[in-house]
């Protein structure tokens, strides 16, 4: 497949439709509309950031679409693929992070993306990436199992080995090495994926993106009205600190966006609005907070 006959327009069209559909589903739950912020990038391309702050359910959340392009890849993109250095490139995707106010409702992240690097007279280098992962503050078995089952169902039609592979990839990726702990209960993650060919790799990525509302909305609906107090809010803010640490220290998407001259406000919309850090703190033995660590922030085969 050459650059001239690779039609990426359907990918962009689906990403825009996915963003709109997800925002519509979330607005139906929250009751407050998302703000729309369209932007352009000097080197090429732009995006649409859909943002909610101080909503009825979401304390902060963003569902962003971007389609950006350039001539010089940032180090985060070319580090593992030296053959794409110096090529013209395009990247497009939808990325979201939602931080509910209620501590019993988990934070969630999802993204789906496409990347292509082109050089005259050479085959294009392209891949899809994506996934979703769940970060609870108070763990519930039924929530984790539902989320993982939905992820598995999205991948099963394409190849039987994809779910265990992408589940492990997620566990390995969303891991805070300096804390020696997972960010949450995981989900699925994949990157640099083209093993099924363009059409089927795209179809698989569509299946992942289309599964998001099914994976998350039932969990959110169960937890968003659970009574809570200052203790739960305090622990939520403490655990949100781990989310900030991961996104700023390890996340490839954050690094790519900042190194490529991306729009900082849109890149950092994933960060939670209220966060706390404490020195050398741990929860009381036997508490609900301690159970998050002992029962959920561990490697488990949920389905």
Report the mean per-residue pLDDT as an integer: 92
Binned, the helix content reads 25-40%
Q: Could you give the order of strands across the largest sheet? A: 1-2-3-4-5-6-9
What would CATH call the architecture?
Answer: 3-Layer(aba) Sandwich
Q: Strand-residue fraction? A: 25-35%
User: How many domain regions?
Assistant: 1
Helix vs. strand class: alpha+beta
CA radius of gyration: 19 Å
The CATH class is: Alpha Beta
- Termini separation comes to 37 Å
GO molecular function, one term: protein homodimerization activity
Cofactor: a divalent metal cation
Function: Involved in the heme biosynthesis. Catalyzes the aerobic oxidative decarboxylation of propionate groups of rings A and B of coproporphyrinogen-III to yield the vinyl groups in protoporphyrinogen-IX.
Pathway: Porphyrin-containing compound metabolism; protoporphyrin-IX biosynthesis; protoporphyrinogen-IX from coproporphyrinogen-III (O2 route): step 1/1
């Amino acid at each position: 497949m050459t650059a001239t006959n690779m039609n990426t327009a359907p990918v962009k069209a689906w990403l825009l439709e996915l963003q709109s559909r997800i925002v519509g589903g979330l607005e139906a739950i929250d009751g407050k509309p998302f703000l729309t912020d369209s932007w352009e990038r000097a080197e090429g391309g732009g995006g649409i950031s859909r943002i909610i702050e101080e909503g009825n359910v979401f304390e902060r959340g963003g569902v962003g679409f971007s389609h950006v392009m350039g001539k010089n890849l940032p180090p985060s993109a070319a580090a593992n693929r030296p053959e794409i250095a110096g090529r013209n490139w395009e990247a497009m995707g939808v990325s979201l992070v939602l931080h509910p106010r209620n501590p019993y409702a988990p934070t969630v992240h999802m993204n789906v993306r496409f990347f292509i690097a082109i050089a005259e007279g050479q085959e294009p280098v392209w891949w899809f990436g994506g996934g979703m992962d769940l970060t609870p503050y108070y763990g519930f078995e039924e929530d984790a199992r539902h989320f993982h089952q939905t992820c598995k169902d999205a991948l099963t039609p394409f190849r039987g080995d994809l779910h265990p592979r992408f589940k492990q990839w997620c566990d390995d990726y969303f891991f805070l090495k300096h804390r020696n702990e997972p960010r949450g209960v995981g989900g699925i993650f994949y990157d640099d994926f083209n093993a099924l060919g363009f059409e089927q790799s795209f179809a698989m990525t569509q299946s992942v993106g289309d599964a998001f509302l099914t994976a998350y909305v039932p969990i959110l609906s169960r937890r968003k009205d659970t009574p809570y107090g200052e203790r739960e809010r305090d622990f939520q803010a403490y655990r949100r600190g781990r989310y900030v640490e991961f996104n700023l220290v390890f996340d490839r998407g954050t690094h790519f966006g900042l190194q490529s001259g991306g729009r900082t406000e849109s890149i950092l919309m994933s960060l939670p609005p209220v966060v706390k850090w404490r020195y050398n703190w741990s929860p009381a033995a036997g508490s609900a907070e301690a159970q998050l660590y002992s029962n959920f922030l561990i490697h488990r085969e949920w389905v």
